[in-house]
């Protein structure tokens, strides 16, 4: 006797037949596998669940996901601290790479079935299928695998947005990148170099600093064992940095202001240390004529994201091809199969990764 509809993933079929029967049942009822949690909490709450396969709506494309990648937002959502925007999937995953599997009504003909694509998402990427507004898709670079391509959309578009849309980076400027060995950090290093500016980073281990140097950082400092602001001032001969990309927040405010140049831009896009500030921040900021910008990408509207994706596709994506100089490269730290999603979350929570942690979807027929 079969279990009630929707419980097939937990049914103990006869040995050797379970996967075959499950695949048949999933095809019949249009189910798919997805990373899921029933209540907020630790990584142990994560499991793989069978859910309904989505159908593309007006102007949407259905993508068969080969790989997704993990972001800090996924960890926050799992803890119940960062719910998806209204109307977005509650499945984890802000980026994916795979192939076009279906087209919704009203699509303009930019994509066809079988195209290799990358997707910027508001959610839903850590599943076998996801629907995406057609303007939030990019062609996957021919020279990259889906594993590598999955490491691009969220991290690289975040870094590109912060530097160009928000920070208005200029040639020759000095940019301090906190968490330099993170996915966004490694992307930002290369994008700063592409803009003919100077990337400077902070990181927590010598191994991570070495990786950032290999990615192109002009200088790097261990925030755990030295005052990065004093080191930055020494490196810049007292001038400080023109832009700070800050995902840390409250605990760094004094050191950030100490090494921010006159008329510098301090861009906050995360609060890993919290948002509390104790001290005379505004007076010190005013004395330098500095500006604070804050930015989130996930909650931006579709039109903004489509404009961002278009600009990135035109101005950055060509540099991922072989034979182009400078050649950009996504950094993949590790790959976890979907059923090890909890371990992937633990790895990120423990700051073990250099570059991106990628989640690979199971091969289905």
UniProtKB/TrEMBL annotation:
UniProt KW keywords: Acetylation, NADP, Oxidoreductase
Instruction: Please provide, alphabetically and separated by semicolons, the GO molecular function terms listed in this UniProt record.
Output: NADPH binding; quinone binding; quinone reductase (NADPH) activity
State the superkingdom.
Answer: Eukaryota
Keyword match NADP: yes
Q: Which SMART domains does its entry note?
A: PKS_ER
Every copy of the Enoyl reductase (ER) domain together lies at: 41-359
| NCBIfam families xref list | quinone_pig3
Protein name per the record: Tumor protein p53 inducible protein 3
Higher taxonomy:
Eukaryota, Metazoa, Chordata, Craniata, Vertebrata
């Amino acid at each position: 006797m079969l279990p009630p509809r929707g419980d097939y993933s937990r049914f103990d079929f006869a040995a050797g037949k379970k996967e075959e029967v499950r695949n048949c049942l999933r095809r019949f009822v249009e189910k798919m596998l997805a990373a899921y949690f029933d209540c907020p909490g630790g990584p142990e709450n994560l499991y793989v669940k069978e859910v309904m396969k989505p159908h593309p709506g007006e102007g949407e494309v259905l993508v068969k996901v080969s790989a997704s990648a993990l972001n800090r937002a996924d960890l926050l959502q799992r803890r119940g601290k960062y719910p998806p925007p209204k109307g977005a999937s509650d499945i984890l995953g802000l980026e994916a790479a795979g192939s076009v599997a279906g087209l919704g009504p009203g699509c303009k003909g930019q994509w066809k079935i079988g195209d290799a694509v990358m997707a910027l998402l508001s959610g839903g990427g850590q599943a076998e299928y996801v629907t995406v507004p057609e303007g939030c898709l990019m062609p996957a670079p021919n020279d990259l695998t889906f594993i590598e391509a999955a490491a691009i959309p969220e991290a690289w578009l975040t870094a590109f947005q912060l530097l160009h849309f928000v920070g208005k980076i200029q040639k020759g400027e000095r940019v301090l990148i906190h968490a330099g060995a993170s996915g966004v950090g490694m992307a930002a290093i290369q994008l700063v170099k592409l803009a003919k500016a100077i990337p400077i980073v902070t990181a927590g281990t010598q191994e991570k600093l070495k990786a950032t140097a290999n990615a192109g950082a002009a200088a790097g400092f261990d925030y755990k064992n030295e005052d990065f602001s004093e080191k930055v001032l020494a490196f810049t001969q007292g001038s400080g940095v023109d832009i700070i990309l800050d995902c840390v927040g409250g605990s760094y405010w004094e050191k950030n202001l100490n090494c921010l140049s006159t008329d510098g831009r301090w861009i906050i896009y995360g609060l890993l240390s919290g948002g509390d500030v104790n001290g005379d921040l505004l007076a010190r900021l005013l004395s330098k004529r500095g500006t604070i910008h804050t930015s989130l990408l996930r909650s931006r509207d579709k039109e903004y994201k489509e404009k961002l994706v278009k600009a990135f596709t035109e101005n950055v994506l060509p540099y991922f091809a072989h034979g182009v100089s400078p050649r950009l490269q996504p950094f993949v730290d590790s790959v976890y199969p979907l059923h090890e999603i909890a371990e992937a979350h633990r790895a990120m929570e423990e700051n073990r990764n250099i570059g991106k942690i990628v989640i690979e979807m199971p091969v289905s027929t």
